[in-house]
User: Fold this.
Amino acid sequence: MRPLPLLASMLALRRGLAMSAGPRERRITQALTKTFAPAHLEVLNESHGRREDESHFKVVVVSDKFEGVKPLIKRHRLVTAAITADTDGKLDFHSLSVAAAKTPAEW
Assistant:
């Protein structure tokens, strides 16, 4: 049997990870998708110990919604606000890292 090309393998792995995403990870993904309609989105569970802990996340958001928003801190605040809209502005987990918040042209 011929091995899958690297891209196909990566996509299969990503689908498998998405299926194993916990409720918090799915909620973050849905909130960012609804708010930003991203051209590219990554939500990575980087929790220490078990993946089920869902306490540490890193996100990458590429969206036209960042057009005209210059200071990086404002983009990060928009991302955080999208995630915390249902929780009165507070994260319901320990750590959020915004690895990138870019426009498609910047990406």
Observations:
- Helices lie at 6-19, 23-36, 72-84.
- The first helix runs from residue 6 to 19.
- The first strand starts at residue 40 and ends at 45.
